[in-house]
Design goal:
37% of the residues lie in helices and 27% in strands. With 336 residues, the protein is of the alpha+beta class. The chain starts with a strand and ends in a 5-residue tail after the last strand. Strands 1, 4, 5, 6, 7, 8, 9 and 14 form an eight-stranded mixed beta sheet that branches. It has a four-stranded antiparallel beta sheet with strand order 11-12-10-13. It is built from ten helices and 14 strands. The chain has helices at residues 74-90, 112-127, 131-135, 137-145, 150-153, 199-205, 212-232, 235-254, 265-279, 303-311; strands at residues 2-14, 19-21, 26-27, 31-48, 55-59, 66-68, 95-102, 160-165, 170-176, 183-189, 284-287, 294-299, 318-322, 329-331. It binds ligand DP6. Ligand DP6 binds at residues 12, 15-17, 31, 111, 113, 149-152, 199-200, 289-290.
């Protein structure tokens, strides 16, 4: 059977960095994120007796489709692993064709794993007839994580979500839906280069930083503040939490062995501009993932002015504007 789904990437306000169990992809800490309306993956899958092997093709806004090989290492290899997981759950043997397209460029440094893994998992479940899992979003989020992506599990629910980790499980729950708060995330792209260290490699070095234990000590309080700030729509509190968390995560990265520096000159140019605009009275904050691009977070009333000012900075190559978005959905629009 054929099925398709669409799913957003997300920006984590409180980030996950490091895994306490690398086999089952269990993060050390909860993370909180907002789905992004303009960073979307759409995936179509079809199980068929006619197929001799699994095939996955992925396309980006600015590139033609490329075919992935099952022997690939890292995240691409995990996609084939998720096909196997779902085949086992459904008790089917048929091979599958997968085609996925992202509406953002491959070279913009936006993690395609969150939108891609969630879209793939839901389309596979639908095509394999696993309707009870699709209906149980908590179980579905856990299944998405087992594909190898913690950020992807946060994209399952609409709007603002939290991935919650216990001793041996991790699942997502919703904090508020996408209509709750008119925040805007303007992604300021400062490089078109692939990042020097993959986040998969980065996660495994987290414990080597002397500051990692300190980060984990602080994080419960920061999670609680962030949750409360979202529910109460307290933008100053949210901004303070998200910046503190970004700085804490990058301090861990920079002090890991070997150290990882993701920031570039453009990153600092955007940060300095944000500090200046804030001193002048504008409400604007930043968040940075495992890369050099800056997520500039503001209220919708200020978004146009801030985007124009960002585009005036010589190190900003382009911007992508996002508002809070729905989570992963089934669609009847197929890619083949
Ligand atoms: C810095 O981008 O590797 O974006 O697929 O979940 O492993 P996974 O995502 P990956 O790591 C995310 C790290 C982060 C913070 C975050 O999104 O929580």
């Amino acid at each position: 059977m054929k099925a398709s789904s669409i799913s957003p990437a997300n920006i984590a306000f409180i980030k996950y960095w490091g895994q306490k169990d690398q086999k089952s992809f269990l993060p050390y800490n909860n993370s909180i994120s907002m789905n992004l309306s303009n960073c979307i993956s759409k995936t179509t899958v079809e199980f068929s007796n006619e197929l001799k092997e699994d095939s996955i093709e992925i396309g980006f806004e600015n590139k033609t489709f490329s075919k992935l090989s099952p022997t690939e290492s890292g995240k691409n290899g995990f996609l084939f692993g998720q096909i196997e997981n779902i085949r086992k759950l459904a008790g089917i043997a048929q091979k599958v064709r997968v085609k996925s397209v992202n509406n953002f460029p491959s070279d913009a440094g936006i993690a395609a794993s969150a939108s891609g893994f969630s879209a793939l998992t839901v389309a596979l479940c639908k095509a394999a007839g696993l309707n009870e899992i699709i209906a149980d979003k908590r179980a579905l989020s856990s299944l998405v994580r087992q594909a190898g992506s913690v950020s992807a599990m946060r994209s399952i629910f609409d709007g603002f979500t939290e991935s919650c980790v216990t001793e041996n499980e991790c699942y997502t729950q919703q904090i508020a839906d996408e209509k709750h708060w008119d925040l805007v995330d303007i992604i300021a792209i400062t490089t078109l280069d692939k990042k020097s260290t993959s986040s998969t490699d980065g996660h495994s070095g987290a414990e080597t930083s002397p500051y990692f234990a300190v980060r984990l000590q602080e994080i419960s309080e920061r999670l609680a503040s962030c949750r409360k700030a979202i529910l109460q729509k307290d933008f100053t509190k949210l901004g303070e939490c998200m910046e503190a968390d970004t700085i804490s995560m990058h301090a861990v990265m920079m002090t890991s062995k070997p150290p990882i520096f993701y920031w570039n000159e453009g990153t600092m140019q955007v940060l300095n501009a944000i500090f200046k605009w804030r001193n002048e009275g504008l409400q604007v904050y930043f968040s940075i993932d495992a890369g050099a691009n800056v997520h500039v977070i503001c209220l919708s009333k200020d978004a146009q002015e801030i985007e124009a000012s960002l585009l005036n900075l010589d190190k900003v190559l382009r911007t992508i504007i996002n508002v809070p978005a729905m989570g992963t959905k089934i669609t009847e629009e197929h890619l083949f």
